[in-house]
Specification:
The protein has 239 residues and is of the alpha+beta class. The protein has 3 domains: 8-50; 53-83, no CATH class; 102-235, GIY-YIG endonuclease, CATH 3.40.1440.10. It is built from 10 helices and 5 strands, in the order ααβαβααββαααβαα. It has helices spanning 8-24, 29-50, 65-71, 89-93, 97-100, 126-138, 145-153, 160-163, 173-189, 224-235, and strands at 56-61, 79-84, 105-110, 117-122, 164-169. Strands 4-3-5 form a 3-stranded antiparallel β-sheet, with helices on both faces.
Length: 239
C-alpha cells in the first residue's frame, strides 16, 4: 500500500481500516503504528535513491598507489571509479603462442662474412633484441658488439633464420649471466667468438660443464645449478 500510487486521503482511509481490523483481533495499536513508520521510511529511502542523477562510471587500470591518488581527485564529481586489472583470465587463456616460442634467453648471432659469433642475453623475446641489433647496423650506431663488428669490418649479416639462434631459454637474471659467460668462453676457446665482445678470464671450472669437442650448434647438457655455482665461484676469485 505504501508503494502504490494513491492520494493521501485514500492512504489514511486504508490505515484506519487496518487499525480497526488489528484492534478487533486483539492487537495493540502500537504495532500498527510501528509498521506504518517503518514502511514510510522505506518508501522515502527508495524515492531518494531513484531520484539521484545518473552517475558515470569510468574504468581505470590499477597498477599501483599512483592510480589511487589520481582517482581520489574525482571524489567530489558525479563520477564513479571502477578498477580493472591487466592480468585477466581471458589473457591467461589466450596467450600469444609466439611469446612461448620467443622466450627470454641466451642467444647467438652469426656474422655472414667471417662466420664468427656474438653471444648475448635478453630478458625480452630474442626476436625483439635481434631487431634492435639490426637497427643499430642500419642506422650506423654501434651500440652493441655485434653492430660494432659488422660496421667496423664492413661485414654482412644474413636473414634472421640464418643469423639468430637460441642457445638457452632462461628467465632468471643470475642464471642468464652464468649461461652467457659459459657460452662466451666456449666460443672463445673455439676461436669463433667475435673480437669485439669482451671475454672474462678463462675459468677452468667451466670446462667441466661441457664437452669442448661439441659443435657450437649443440647445447651443453648441464643443469642451471651447476653453471650458477661455477659462476659464483668465479666471481669470488676461485679458479
Amino acid at each position: 500500500m505504501i508503494t502504490l500510487t494513491n492520494s493521501q486521503a485514500g492512504i489514511n482511509k486504508e490505515w484506519a481500516t487496518i487499525n480497526a481490523m488489528a484492534k478487533s483481533n486483539g492487537f495493540p495499536e502500537s504495532i500498527v503504528c510501528n509498521l506504518r513508520t517503518k514502511l514510510t521510511l522505506k518508501k522515502h529511502k527508495h524515492e531518494s535513491t531513484t531520484k539521484e542523477p545518473n552517475q558515470k562510471w569510468v574504468p581505470f587500470t590499477y597498477f599501483g598507489p599512483a592510480v589511487r591518488r589520481i582517482t581520489n581527485l574525482f571524489k567530489d564529481c558525479n563520477i564513479k571509479i571502477a578498477f580493472r586489472t591487466t592480468n585477466s583470465i581471458q589473457k591467461q587463456l589466450s596467450k600469444d603462442p609466439s611469446n612461448l616460442q620467443n622466450p627470454s634467453s641466451i642467444y647467438k648471432l652469426k656474422c655472414n662474412t667471417c662466420n664468427k659469433m656474438y653471444v648475448g642475453q635478453s630478458g625480452r623475446g630474442i626476436d625483439t633484441r635481434y631487431k634492435e641489433h639490426i637497427r643499430y647496423i642500419r642506422t650506423n650506431n654501434p651500440q652493441s658488439a655485434y653492430a660494432t663488428h659488422i660496421l667496423q669490418n664492413r661485414h654482412e649479416y644474413g636473414p634472421k633464420n640464418d643469423t639468430l639462434q637460441l642457445l638457452k631459454a632462461c628467465s632468471n637474471r643470475t642464471q642468464m649471466n652464468c649461461w652467457e659467460t659459459m657460452y662466451m668462453q666456449k666460443l672463445h676457446q673455439g676461436d669463433i667468438l667475435i673480437a669485439e665482445q669482451q671475454v672474462h678470464e678463462p675459468n677452468p671450472l667451466y670446462n667441466c660443464t661441457y664437452d669442448t669437442r661439441l659443435s657450437p650448434r649443440n647445447q651443453p647438457t648441464v643443469s642451471s645449478t651447476t653453471v650458477q655455482n661455477t659462476y659464483q665461484q668465479e666471481n669470488i676469485g676461485i679458479t
